[in-house]
Amino acid sequence: MIPQLRGWYDRYEKDGFTIVGVHSPEFFWEKSYERVVDAAKRLGVRYPIVQDNDMRIWTRWGVRAWPTTLLVDKKQVVRYRHIGEGDYEETEAMIRRLLAERD
What we know:
Blueprint: H1 2-12, E1 21-23, H2 33-43, E2 49-51, H3 56-60, E3 68-72, E4 78-83, H4 88-100
């Protein structure tokens, strides 16, 4: 999933596309800020990552599995949800569609 996110960020950032990664750790040792920073550097992640150590974001957005992708439109409405890996072409098509929409 990370390579696809990096690619979309690189291709569409100039068009107003924003990615916010949310790190919701499954295990206690995944809660370390330093580990998240190190992993982001190692994986070449340039977009912001929020640490969700208390799982509040996870719960608020109704996430139940890793990874989950949500696409939110300009009016802050969730327009697309995909759970798990795959469907990258469908996800990218929706990104393009949302970017093309007028306010």
